Amino acid sequence: MNKILSLFIAAACLLVSYHASAQTGLTDSDRDFAFNHLKQSQKKLQKVVKGLSDTQLNFKASPESWSIAECVEHMAISESVIFSFIEGSLKTAADPSLRSEVKMTDEQIIQLTTDRSTKVQTREVFEPKHSFGSFQGALDEFNNRRKSSLKYVKSTKDDLRNHYFDFPFGKADSFQVLLFMSGHSIRHIKQIEEILATPTFPSS
Fold it and tell me: Signal peptide position in this chain (predicted)?
């Protein structure tokens, strides 16, 4: 009888442990939202640069402006660097007590990141320096990084809501860093659309 009772208690403990573990990962809603946002911003980039010539890709509205090719290179670099913020956050223990320091909602993170009414000077690490050999090389790098990020979102058990990264605008949880990454893509897609709308943009 004692043996049966012990087995029952052990099984119950495993179930409790599994349930607690399941609660620390992303909700299905979080997972779907991040995956769809990342996927849609990737698709939008493919659409906006499709069929552009080398002349169009390298056109600059002014000497200090970025070209479309440079925007895409910046996005490829950023995809890797921003994801490293998440990897860094996971090196410390999850801490639910810090959640009160996260002041922005997911929607506000996306709105802040995609808003181009305020221009931001990028840090040197994000500067395009023709690192990937060609426009296609940069686009391929972006797509490969985004593919990896999408796979991560679909399968991760990491407790992204209780790990954090400190941006200049405040603390965000690591799930919001994923949204920041996708919003960053949208921000520079808007920049590309502004370049395309320049009156002097080459027709071919």
Answer: 1-22
| Contacts with 61 (C-beta within 8 Å, 6 or more apart), sequence order | 195, 198, 200, 201
The answer to whether the beta carbons of residues 77 and 126 sit under 8 Å apart is yes
Q: 185: closest CA among 50, 38, 8?
A: 38
Tokens describing residue 131: 């690192």
Q: How far is CA 88 from CA 6, 85, 124, 174, 195, in A?
A: 41, 5, 20, 10, 35
Tokens of 9: 């208690």
Average pLDDT over every residue of 163-181: 97
Quick: pLDDT tens for 143-156: 999 999 999 999 99
Tokens of 155: 């399968």
Lookup: tokens for 57: 């890709």
pLDDT for position 24:
55
